[in-house]
Amino acid sequence: MPTAGASHILALSGLHLMIIYSIVTLVIGWHRYHIATQSITVLAIWAFAQLAGLPTSVVRSAFMISIYALLSLGYRERMSVNTLAFAAVVLLIISPLSLYDLGFQLSFAAVLSILLIHPLINGLIADDVQQRHRWLSTAWGLVTVSIAAQIGTAPLVAYHFGRFSTWFLLSNFIVIPSAWFILGVTLLCLVLCWWSWAAGGLFTLLVWLTNTMNHTLGWVAQLPLSSIEGIRLGAIQLFLIYIIIVCCYVALTVSRR
Fold first, then answer.
1. pLDDT tens-place values along the chain, 257 residues long
2. pTM of the predicted model, to two decimals?
């Protein structure tokens, strides 16, 4: 659903691998930072990546999550710009032409934007307020992450496809919870494949969840002004837009000190 602004979420990406990481860790997480637990989880992540055909976005995500798991054993800062840069350097050494892959560009732009911009936006609501209202914190976190990712990827999408999706927040509220349920049910199907009755019921539920998500996104795509088409950006304009974003980020960061 490109016009709904959900194509980057529906494509295999870090969202799906992080959901799998969370589910597997929850199921086998006798001790969250236990070496055996993290090793099994990382193996599950790379098994999924292999099944997916090892596209650039999935390899990047699997590599990042592997670093996340390794750093979590030492209680160190697990996700940072340094970690992202290290993953980018390793992937480019292995495959230098990945730099020109749109999936690579969008993937790293989204994660970098989330790492840098999400804390700034999230800070608009005080931490103590978010701690008192868990549902508010969850909803606000989804909003801020979506906006941050959109800031990082929208110029690239406009440059390559000439399009900007205006209902991306609504699409995210639909797709992200749906992805959790769909991947969770899929993993249950794999675990209970030997029990035909349970697997059949779960498969029926999986089909219903997928169809419901697709129909809902189709409705979003039909909303007025769901997508601004015909945007024309040159390479220089794209570069200048990111320069403006960087300048705004630096100005906001300095003003908050």
1. 455 555 555 555 666 777 777 777 777 765 555 677 778 888 888 888 887 777 766 777 788 778 777 776 665 555 678 878 887 888 888 888 888 888 778 878 888 898 899 889 988 888 888 888 888 888 888 888 888 888 988 899 889 888 888 888 888 888 878 888 888 888 788 778 888 888 888 889 989 988 998 888 888 878 887 788 888 888 999 999 999 999 999 998 888 77
2. 0.77
CA distance 256 to 119: 12
Q: Within its chain, how far is the Cα of 174 from the centroid? A: 14
